[in-house]
Amino acid sequence: QTVVTQEPSFSVSPGGTVTLTCGLSSGSVSTSYYPSWYQQTPGQAPRTLIYSTNTRSSGVPDRFSGSILGNKAALTITGAQADDESDYYCVLYMGSGNWVFGGGTKLTVL
Amino acid sequence: EVQLVESGGGLVQPGGSLRLSCAASGFTFSSYWMHWVRQAPGKGLVWVSRINSDGSSTSYADSVKGRFTISRDNAKNTLYLQMNSLRAEDTAVYYCARSNSHAADYWGQGTLVTVSS
Question: A67, B39, B55, B57: most buried by Cβ count inside 10 Å?
Answer without folding.
Answer: B39
